[in-house]
Design goal:
This protein has 219 residues and is mainly alpha-helical. It folds into two domains: 124 residues, Cytochrome Bc1 Complex, Chain D, domain 2; 78 residues, Cytochrome Bc1 Complex, Chain D, domain 2. It binds heme C (2 copies). The site of one heme C has 24 residues, from α1, α4, α5 and α6.
């Protein structure tokens, strides 16, 4: 399945990367891009334009992330409804190599210009999240209790996050599990000191329970 996806977007990848590498002005610091994103969000006319451009640029992402950022693959994250500054920050991390994924995914993000990243983040953040049926199993009930104890202080009571902290409600279950295990393993795929300390003592069963609860949590 992954191989098929890989091939379907490979053409774009081959075309985009050499152009990006050759004619690209130097990468602005992340803070400058965040300031641009905030400024654009405050101006309705610029925001509308950015969202329209973002929708076009995000066309290639739907092969994996689904139409309007609602993924149908458990291991591929939903981007719909995710907080814009968080999306931009993660794309910046792929660009700077402080978040590692498959070479293919990283190459694709590196081929985007800073403005395209801002536009895509603004577009995706405004797409509605597909809601899944609530999970009432014992796993989800335990996950909810653990969430209330360890995670709620940052990710919030409805798991919607903040501008800089990701929304977890409705996120794909396999992706939630993979991400938590990556923070816990500390091997550099995902680096965040806060998440490292909050996942350090989680057992695999805790991670499964948290994913069962969060992935079916409606907005
Ligand atoms: C070949 C499949 C594929 C394509 C195409 C793809 N992605 Fe991804 N994307 C992934 C996978 C898999 C992950 C999870 C990677 C990880 O955590 O290592 C991911 C993660 C992300 C994340 C981090 C999400 C989070 O919640 O932290 C962002 C942002 C993202 N992708 C943006 C994009 C954008 C923008 C595009 C289009 C320009 C795109 N992706 C195209 C597969 C893909
Ligand atoms: C002290 C604040 C804090 C606490 C407490 C916290 N988180 Fe996080 N979490 C963050 C931040 C900040 C990020 C973004 C880190 C990054 O850039 O990789 C994050 C990222 C994540 C992600 C990645 C989401 C994505 O879309 O890729 C998951 C999953 C997650 N947290 C789950 C949890 C769970 C489950 C708990 C409780 C066990 C928890 N967090 C506790 C701050 C926190």
């Amino acid at each position: 399945m992954r191989a098929r996806l890989f091939l379907s977007v490979f053409g774009f990848f081959l075309m985009a990367v050499p152009v990006a590498a050759k004619d690209r002005p130097p990468e602005p610091p992340p803070a400058e891009l965040h300031a641009r994103l905030a400024l654009t969000s405050q101006n309705p006319a610029s925001l509308d334009e950015a969202i329209r451009r973002g929708e076009r640029s995000a066309g290639v992402c739907r092969h994996c992330h689904g139409a309007s950022g609602n993924s149908v693959r458990p291991e591929v994250p939903n981007l719909a409804g995710q907080n814009a500054a968080y999306l931009l920050e993660q794309m910046n991390k792929f660009v700077h190599g402080t978040r590692r994924s498959s070479d293919f995914m990283t190459g694709l993000i590196q081929a985007l210009s800073p403005q395209e990243r801002i536009d895509i983040a603004l577009f995706l953040a405004r797409q509605p999240v597909a809601v899944k049926a609530a999970d009432t199993s014992a796993h989800a009930v335990s996950g909810k209790a653990l969430y209330g104890k360890l995670c709620v202080s940052c990710h919030g009571p409805a798991a919607l996050g903040t501008e800089k902290i990701p929304r977890l409600a409705g996120q794909q279950p396999g992706y939630l599990e993979d991400s938590l295990k990556r923070y816990r393993a500390g091997k550099g795929e995902r680096i965040d000191p806060m998440m490292a300390s909050y996942t350090r003592n989680l057992k695999d069963s805790d991670i499964r329970n948290l994913a069962a609860y969060l992935s079916t949590l409606a907005p």
